[in-house]
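user:
I keep going back and forth on a fold encoding question. Separate attempts, laid side by side, tell us more than any discussion would. Would you put together a sequence-and-structure record for a protein of your own picking? Write it directly below this note and I will take it from there.

assistant:
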Amino acid sequence: MRHGQTNEHESKTIHISKLSKLSKNGIESVKKKMETLKHLNIRYIYSSPYARSIETSRIIANIMKLNIITYLELSDVAKGVLY
């Protein structure tokens, strides 16, 4: 699952930060998505170290009663060029 929506996404700001947090809508959308997925046999949660990913993973971990495994390798490598 991709991380939930951040405040920057909602304001259409092109500011990518490792510290971006989920917006209220982002938190609610993750919880809603988990309602449809919680019946699955999810055994592991892998996350990048970015705040938005950790926050998303914590919501999932609380619902599924699982630990989070953080991998630096899951971080964005290239952000691309805006035209």
Q: What stands out?
A: The mean pLDDT is 80. Strands lie at 45-47, 68-70.
